[in-house]
Amino acid sequence: MKTIYLQASSYLQETNLALCLGFFDGLHLAHIELLKRTILEGKKRGIQTGMMTFSTHILSFIYNSPFEYLSSIIDKTKEAEKLGFDYFYVLEVTDDLVSLDAKDFIHQFLVKQKLIVVGFDYTYGKYGKGDVTLLTKQKEFETIIVSEMVYDQKKIGSTHIRQLIKEGNVTLASVLLGRPYSIYGKVVPGKNRGKSLGFPTANIKNLGYLQPLSGVYIVNVIVNHKIHHGLANIGDNPTFDDTGVTLEVYIFDFEQDIYGSNIKLCFLQYLREEVKFSSKQELIDQMVEDEVITRSWFEKREIL
């Protein structure tokens, strides 16, 4: 697969592709349906396939606000390659791209393609005025519109999934994503407080992902492509009157030195809220209980 970055002044050089368009934050079930449909339609027609996304969230760029993503560009690239796309395009979000007229967007990036595949609510061009109706009016290419997907009578979409994660409902979020909600982080030096308590933790620097609600979570931790079980804590450690939210993970039966490594945390279930304990011993007792519950949780799923 070839990855190509495009500017507002670029023209897509490849032609006669089956090309799907979207921001694809989360790569949730509806996104995967759209991507797989593109691959399928490309095979039917005997043509190459492409996936086109944006370098960042358009509205966040316009309002100059931080954007915490569900899926990074690297995540999207990996998914495109796994599904078998020939090309992965990233439109660099700039003032020029944001101000590009919808018809110019079509002329520069789409007009020489064979097939365009989009979700029902896809928009593009200045002020998001370009929509799927405009695409269907173009005679140079065919357009397939993938309908809305719902779960429990609600649209499967990034906005809903984001809200679930902010509420700590990573279980339902994972159902809509089709996999556990995961973030990548870098292991950085911490205060080594966990080790003194008998629960050595890795302090994680979140690499730009949306962080779940503060609390304790059952997690899988992927280190060097190997899965380990563990517990993650998100919060400000109220027992020790810390300031600033941290992300720490206690990996069961693990003694490797992983400082400086990038690891993946897969959030499986919210266990409990963060609590201010009256003593260190009370905290230790709770952590022992958390570990017992979590190990049992994993054992039951291994049996099933």
Question: Would you mind describing this structure in some detail?
Answer:
The chain has 304 residues and is α/β, with parallel strands linked by helices. The protein has two domains: 2-148, Rossmann fold (3-Layer(aba) Sandwich), CATH 3.40.50.620; 178-303, Riboflavin kinase-like (Elongation Factor Tu (Ef-tu), domain 3, Beta Barrel), CATH 2.40.30. The protein is 32% helix and 27% strand. It contains ten helices and 14 strands. It has helices spanning 29-45, 58-62, 73-83, 95-98, 102-109, 132-136, 158-166, 170-177, 193-197, 280-303, and strands at residues 2-6, 18-21, 49-54, 87-91, 115-119, 142-146, 150-151, 154-155, 181-188, 202-206, 215-223, 226-235, 246-251, 262-272. The strands form three sheets. It has a six-stranded parallel β-sheet. Helix 7 packs antiparallel against helix 8. The longest helix has 24 residues, at 280-303. The mean pLDDT is 92.
Structural class: alpha/beta
**Uncertain stretches:** none
Sheet with the most strands: spatial strand order: 1-4-3-2-5-6
Quaternary organisation: single chain
Helix content: 25-40%
Q: Can you tell me the CATH architecture of the largest domain?
A: 3-Layer(aba) Sandwich
> Total helix count?
10
CATH third-tier fold name of the largest domain:
Rossmann fold
- Count of individual domains: 2
Q: How many strand elements?
A: 14
What is the CA-CA span between the terminal residues? 38 Å
CATH class of the largest domain: Alpha Beta
| H/E series | EEHEHHEHHEHEEEHHEHEEEEEH
Give the radius of gyration: 22 Å
Percent of residues in beta strands: 25-35%
Largest sheet: 6 strands, parallel
What's the CATH H-level superfamily name of the largest domain? HUPs
Gross morphology: elongated
